[in-house]
Automatic annotation (TrEMBL):
The JmjC domain, residue ranges: 112-265
Record protein name field: JmjC domain-containing protein
Cofactor(s) of this protein: Fe(2+)
Domain of life: Bacteria
Keyword Transcription regulation among UniProt keywords: no
Record's keyword annotation contains Cell membrane: no
Keywords associated with the record: Iron, Metal-binding
Segments passing through the bilayer: none
Alphabetized GO MF terms: metal ion binding
Amino acid sequence: MYRLPPLRRIKAFRSTPSGIERNAMYDFTFEDLVGDEKVFFAEYFDKKPLLRKNAMPGDVRDILSVRKLDELLHMESIRPPYIKVNHNGSGVPEKGYTRSVVVQGVNITDTVVPEKIYELFRAGATVTWCSLNQIVPELRDFTRVISDKMAVRTDVVGFMTPTKKRGYLPHHDPVDLFIVQLEGTKRWKLWDLPAQREGDNASYTDEELGEPAIEVLLEPGDVLYLPYNTPHAAAAEDQVSLHLSIMMRPRMWKDLLRETFEQAASGPEFNQYPHIGALRDAGTEALFRQKIAALAARMDALDSGAELDRLAELGRTMPGSSHGTTFQTIAETDRITPSVLLRRTAAVVEFGANDGGRTQMTVNGHKIAVPTPVAETLAGLEADVPAGDIFPGVDPERATKAAQGLTRLGVLEVAPH
């Protein structure tokens, strides 16, 4: 079960349109979490836990640290449900650690009080940071990597547990988990998956579960994978423990079929409004049967591979992992010079008819009129072209200015180095 892959470091650099290279945090990959992908999906995914010792590259405190959570707690903007406190297996009421504050004339009724959180932590409470990927931009790297591979919604939750304390009673979750230990150590007890997996939450007593099937100690850099509904319990050892639970929300067959059904039933033939009450027409039942048959025919005619690809893409674009650099791109557009290579973006551009030498273009909701030769050049642009040469016959400086404007609109982008 336990595999020890070689430790590897990945130094990441990110390029910008101006050509400036910036040091970045370590870039994490799906392989850092699972090791060999083929082995993971064949032997572990949705079947049994996987432990990977020393799996994450670099200093994992760069991902998130106890010190970073101190800073986050004092931001004066943290509110439930982004933070929760659990003491002796029970949740602490939010009123016990929040207060009202006035921000720009608006009364915020549930801002977290750092001193009260610290008091609870000193008393042995676990502090849970929910959906950290919505608060800490770097943690969206995890959600993007996993959502891209798994086509599911992904969220990151942080658990900080005092020394020698157990944060929660034994339980199972309705989500697959990647546990990443960041600071301290934590001992995990795992029990066998239940015979019936309903995809729900459930808590247990120690007596109900008996002896654990597996017991492991997680140290910084270790990764543990748990299929959904795996009963587990964890306790900090001789130091404060901080770990991330990266939660993958399963899309069951019933969820996928529901999305496929909604797509198949979106045709105009299913938009009529029937009366189905006690006074319905005699033919309504027969018409209902016809609609069922028509829907079944549409479902049967689906290209299953193409439909699974569509469903996968929907999963990759669920909330929790979006990213972008539009502000940065717009800010750096002014530094584009005639020699910078540009190319067409993936944005859909609609070209109108030639009207007196000018053509209307529509892109990202913006409508602009450009000289028809410019529109024709953009419509046929396939290769990377220097900004100064992008419009033949136009002075390079003027061409660059025009290219800058089209880059701001999202029609063009700087070609990667």
